[in-house]
TrEMBL record, chain A:
Cited InterPro entries: ABC/ECF_trnsptr_transmembrane, ECF_transporter_component
Protein name: Energy-coupling factor transporter transmembrane protein EcfT
Keyword Transmembrane: yes
Annotated source species: Lachnoanaerobaculum gingivalis
Cellular compartments annotated: Membrane
Topology within the bilayer: Multi-pass membrane protein
CDD domains per record: EcfT
Lineage: Bacteria, Bacillati, Bacillota, Clostridia, Lachnospirales
From TrEMBL, chain B:
Topology within the bilayer: Peripheral membrane protein
InterPro entries according to UniProt: AAA+_ATPase, ABC_transporter-like_ATP-bd, ABC_transporter-like_CS, ABC_transpr_CbiO/EcfA_su, ECF_ABC_transporter_ATP-bd, P-loop_NTPase
Domain ABC transporter: 2-240, 261-473
Pfam families given in the database record: ABC_tran (PF00005)
GO molecular function: ATP binding; ATP hydrolysis activity; ATPase-coupled transmembrane transporter activity
Subcellular location: Cell membrane
Any GO CC annotation of this UniProt entry: ATP-binding cassette (ABC) transporter complex
Record-given protein name: ABC transporter ATP-binding protein
Major location category of this protein: membrane
Ranges that cross the membrane: none
Function summary: Probably part of an ABC transporter complex. Responsible for energy coupling to the transport system.
UniProt family annotation: Belongs to the ABC transporter superfamily.
Amino acid sequence: MRKLDNRTYIILLAVSTVFWFLFYKNNQIHLSVVLNALLLIYIREYKKAIKFAITYIMMILLACLFAGKIALMYIVLNMLARSIPIIMVVTCIVSGNSSELMSSLQKLKIPKPIIVMICIMIRFFPVLSKESVAIRNGMKARGIFSGWQDYVKHPFLAYECFIIPLIIRCIKLSDELGATAELRGLNADKNRTCIYDVRFGLKDVFAVIVYGTVIGLIYFGA
Amino acid sequence: MIEFQKVYFSYKEGDSSIKDISFLIKPGECTILCGKSGSGKSTILRTVSGLAPVFYEGILQGKVEVDKLVPAGLESEERAKLFGVVFQDPRSQFFMNTVQDEICFAAENIGASPNKIKEMLYEVSEFIGIRDLLSRNIDELSSGQKQKVAIASSLILQPKVLILDEPTSNLDIQGSKVLIEIIKKIKDKGISVVISEHRLDSFKEVADRFLYINKGKLDEIWTRKEFENLSDEKLLSLGLRPKTVEKKANNDIENDKEPLLDIRSLSFRYKKTNSGIDNINLKLYKGEVVSLLGNNGAGKTTLCRVISGLLREKTGTIKYKGKISNCNLRNKFCYFVMQDADYQLYSDSVSGEIAFGKKVTEKVKEKLIESLNTFKLMELKDRHPASLSGGEKQRVTLAAAYCSEADIYILDEPTSGMDGDGLCAIIRWVKLLAEKGKIVIIITHDLLLAEATSNKFIYLEEGEQVKEGRNII
């Protein structure tokens, strides 16, 4: 992965969020998806770029299908599709290296508790999805909710069955993570160091300028 | 190095506590804490590291000193330098995504210089033997490798005390051997090692002393020699795992009948990793107990997931009572009890859990009462499953399985993290199921359990059935 500094991504996220609020035409959102896909390609996250692009196109097509028929679906799908460009920039931060991210955030003078929270959150997403799969398997293994029909028939029960073990597991995990954090010096008063060289370099400046110019052009041009 | 003098600790909620504990551990000594589940072993470990009362609130009395320092009064940084701690489930203590970052984590936190950290990283990864894993993603590692990473991360600051909480519970036999070798090397460096463990026998090479904790009190201290001389009866009476068990008699299965389950050239491959199982052939008869043995990643769980219908086979057939059955059907007559019972408990009471998903008819009620009685859960029937101990939870899932219509039971590592009483209980339940004519398949690394219950042993290696027999080889 060709990397930019995490501070660059944070700036890009801020810039794209501001414009995202300003965009009033569908074309502008389309183009910003293209721009962010190019950003993902630039940092060599090809698969993610393709995945997001396809998801976006599917959602827009579906929304068009529902247009004029089921208004609620149209609105929901459009909202989801609209959030994709922002999620794409967030992906750049999340899929990177947590150690570097902590270091970058520290350089931005963000308070330590918040840095720790962000990093644990990033770490928690994959864990959550793994836990969910395990619970799903657990249900299936007990012969409960073995087919999708059962979910449709008893949606609330299914939700309960899923959420209770998930909460119990999360409490257990967070308890242990907290204890480990204490034992591994995460609460130490000193400034954290990082084995990687975290630097805001020329290519970061270049990226911010190009990204800012293009998104500006999209806003004023499209 | 570690000194305890008349130490008492009680948690804020006042549930479990330790009483009047006194002992002394020298540098480079390996001490094993043993005792029944819930006897207070973990609390002692927490008091050693100062987590109790700093993180787990409670009242501490008496004198605790580690390297002439009081652990409860240490700053986070000093604590990180003094102790290395590895928890039972290494998964829940990783903060970073790659092995290298994880190992460096503690050193970065206390602000060591990057060059110094890199030096220490290479030193510790060489020492543990994971140099080749440094750039790997942690989620891709096997449980044995994860454990090594966890140990390496706890050693980076060159602590004086290493604390391991049930380190073998997720390891296979090979992994446990490697762990013992690593502990030997750590001891040679003069680091004191304190381990809480149920599988004592595997530690007899490295342990200098065994402390037996009972109901929060230090009841007995054994040297290695004294431990070796303890009889199985004595160990069992103390609630510890015995060294050997009575083998199951092998002549009680009639093999001339039609097999209940007939598996022929069964194969499955995961798309992502292309690992899986190949050409498995197996005939199982009513009342048979089979142990699936083999290292982690050999395909034991995969095979059982295919048998139980959680995965669809790629090729091959599974016949149940002489008829080919697809995975939906198999899902009905197989019952898979996962290693971690938390994933399989959904209801708000034990009796609700056992009858979960069934229409409450008179017949189900009868069956429910029978299950509660058989698994001795009558007293617990109104408790919330989440409030039970690990062994009790497992018993509830077994009772739920018993109450279902299933004929085939699959138990995944049922004795992981269990004391002697837990082991005996599982042996009893498995025998009971077999007597009722059910087939029980056990995935395990626990040879005691396998020996005591099974009349067939199947060894898997890289997804292939390498050995099969009526005795452990």
